[in-house]
Design brief:
9 helices; 3-stranded antiparallel sheet; mainly alpha; elongated; about 40% helix
Length: about 260
């Protein structure tokens, strides 16, 4: 950063009684996680409050890299939007998407689970079962059933793989669950966060539900086919109802 830019930044931070260390902590967290939710933890609560104080400064700084911010002040979270990303409910830019580090790469199993989380969130929203924080409670039993009915899939049989799957979605701030939750247990519950709405388009969900209602749910690509990838990384994201993967997750899903 040039000396002039650094001096301007330091001056504006001083006006808000913040140090350069406070700034670095906030920016590094945003770039590392891509999202900050005030109700996630004490650390993120402090960082979110700090962001609100200097939102315009953060916005200007990230704009230099072509990165946009989506700030939901009602549900108190902020998410980074990579250059050219197409996000449901947010105006698109003219840039074409690129495969960059800010994009969360999802496996087929993660893609399938996020699709189901979005459909269950919409269902609870219609039924008025959303709490004051915009979250929806969902039992593991209901999740397993929805995954089977909508996509003819099941959760990983291996317990550690299942826990890693839910840990990944928690890192993306799409779900919450207590530290002592026994996720393999059908009696366990998770909370679906409202951020899931920004990852899956309404059109895709409508097509998915229509396919399930017809009695012919889309068949997901499974691991029974030969794996030609030496690193065992999935080569394609789940492509339900013949919709391009790019439209599934507003550019957050990509080939691994």
């Amino acid at each position: 950063m040039s000396s002039n830019l650094l001096e301007t930044l330091q001056q504006q931070l001083q006006e808000k009684n913040l140090s350069q260390g406070d700034w670095l902590e906030l920016i590094q967290r945003l770039l590392d996680y891509g999202v900050i939710c005030r109700d996630e933890s004490r650390i993120e609560s402090d960082l979110y409050d700090r962001f609100v104080r200097i939102e315009s400064l953060v916005d200007d700084y990230l704009a230099l890299m072509g990165v946009r911010l989506h700030h939901d002040s009602h549900f108190e979270y902020v998410r980074l939007i990579p250059p050219g990303a197409r996000v449901p409910g947010i105006d698109d830019e003219q840039d074409q998407p690129f495969n960059g580090g800010l994009r969360a790469r999802l496996s087929k199993q993660e893609v399938a689970l996020v699709l189901v989380l979005r459909t269950e969130y919409d269902k609870a929203l219609r039924e008025g079962k959303v709490d004051e924080g915009g979250c929806v409670n969902l039992s593991m039993e209901a999740l397993v059933l929805a995954l089977k009915n909508l996509l003819s899939r099941s959760l990983p049989e291996n317990i550690s793989d299942r826990r890693q799957l839910f840990k990944r979605l928690r890192q993306l701030r799409l779900i919450r669950y207590s530290a002592d939750a026994d996720l393999p247990d059908g009696d366990s519950w998770i909370k679906i966060r409202p951020m899931v709405v920004n990852l899956v388009s309404n059109e895709l969900i409508d097509q998915l539900l229509a396919a399930a209602a017809s009695g012919q749910p889309p068949v997901a690509e499974d691991s029974s086919e030969p794996d030609n990838n030496p690193d065992n990384a999935p080569q394609q994201t789940l492509n339900p109802v013949s919709v391009d993967a790019d439209s599934v997750f507003a550019d957050t899903a990509d080939e691994d």
